[in-house]
Amino acid sequence: MRVLVLGGTAWVGGVLAAEAVARGHEVTCLARGTGPAPAGTRLVRADRERPGAYEEVGGRWDAVLDVARDPQHVRGAVEALDAAWFGFVSSVNAYADPATPHQDEAAALLDPDAEPADPGEEYGQGKVACERGILAAFGDRALVARAGLIGGPGDHTGRSTYWPWRFAHPSGDAVLVPDAARRSSELLDVRDLAAWMLDRAERGAGGVVDAVGPETPLPEHLETARRVAGHAGEVVAAPEPWLLEQGVQEWMGPRSLPLWLADPGWQGFTTRDGSAARAAGLVHRPLADTLRDALAWEEQQPAHPHGAGLTDAEEQALLDALAR
């Protein structure tokens, strides 16, 4: 196939492009070129904000893959490109109700008529608008993959890499975790997402599908990370209210415990149904494999924690405070 990846020089787009190359497809990446494109691809440098961005990628494409969040970028691509099939990495942030567990693709979306003023800030709304333009143009020749948490090697957000790294490098004698027996994770390995989307592209199969990982109790996820890292020390579980009082952030970012969501308004975010994707052929590798490879990648990064989590000093201060 002739495959065009809109992006391809960053994480998810790069994995999509590399998977297409590995399958023997002719792959072109269109991007501003802020990073290298995967080996075996052709990189066309272009800014999707500018007129004529798609002039060098004319002709018929068997498949186009896009990870955009800006509806203007998607509209420009839809209007300019001649494609037999269009695959789009959307997000479960597109749904209006992130609180209710075990919803599926029939759940209500954010207002599809509300154009986001800033797609960077209004991420879910931007994805809804992107979806709308793609589905209007391609119908059943479009695959909209509403992804949950994507992780694995290359995860610059630190959400999937922090825990195996922290268990491999405790700040002292113990590792601090949230006491969150009722919380879940649904980590989707980026390589499994890419393989599944290319499978669908090769068959010309479309649809709107929640692409999420298997629902896993958060304590089980953390224990898997601990086992992968070979940690044999103490694990200290801190009560959720206490962590919030100490200013520990949920989910991601600095001074956080990644993947932990105590907010009742977000309990549906990590407990989506996911059965439609499995029925459509999405296959998940074992969580241990994802976390082991994520750790190997994280070990190569120049600074830690990378993207999210507690610094050594922050973790030790919290452990000391909890022990008083």
From TrEMBL:
SUPFAM superfamilies: NAD(P)-binding Rossmann-fold domains. Residues 3-199 form the NAD-dependent epimerase/dehydratase domain. InterPro entries: Epimerase_deHydtase (IPR001509), NAD(P)-bd_dom_sf (IPR036291). This is NAD-dependent epimerase/dehydratase family protein. It comes from Amnibacterium endophyticum. The lineage of its organism: Bacteria, Bacillati, Actinomycetota, Actinomycetes, Micrococcales.
